[in-house]
Request: fold
Amino acid sequence: MVKIGRNDLCPCGSGKKFKKCHLGKEEELKLGNPGELSLEEMGEKITALPPVTYGRSAEIVEDLDIKELTGRSMGIRFVDLKAYGDLDFYGSSHPQREKGESGGVFINVRKTMKADPDNIYLAISEDIEDSTLIHELAHVLDYLGGSRLMPGMTAPLGYELEIPAEHLEHPLEFGEKLIFLQERFGVRLDADDAIIAYLCQKELLIRKKEIREKNSFLLKNKSDRILRVLGENSEEIDALIRNRSGYIGPRTVDD
Reply:
């Protein structure tokens, strides 16, 4: 059975680390024999995990009217990220997180929908940062609001078209939800999300309808435009993100 570490490159070919790509969505990858567990059995194990209320998770979800925002009556339930990783459905290794590392995973609804059709599940770390939390919640709101896109789902398309995975994973509608949550709860976005918000405000992000249509010419043009704008405005963007969490230095087109 294939073993994948959290910090290994994701085997989907996106160029991202496994923890940033298909962690939590391993069934979309061809990893060899996943063992005897069915999706239903996985769901039973996930939904049996005790709920957690790390960081501002309870505060934020209690203040959101999911039905009003998405048109769907669904709840959001949080479970411990390490406990979820320890279930080890696909033989992917989840070593002890490095001190200070914070994270969250939008668990694929295919795993949990039969066991608990009324809730979306997010696995979060005890030290989750507010920016990470609203990033995952923006994915949930975008998914429930009609895109039906979960993190990692568009990675194969990005690889096929040679488009950065994040250009497809974060459509305009995701950006709008991210900005809504950031403003609603007074969250300081991390460096990556500040760039997404910057592109969203300029209406440069790809729309979910365009992603679903898979028009390669349109998608590549829009992706190239994003890269061009990032390159032409690199100094402005660097000033925007320099003092934010996750800053790793000036961003280049290759980033």
Observations:
- The radius of gyration is 18 Å.
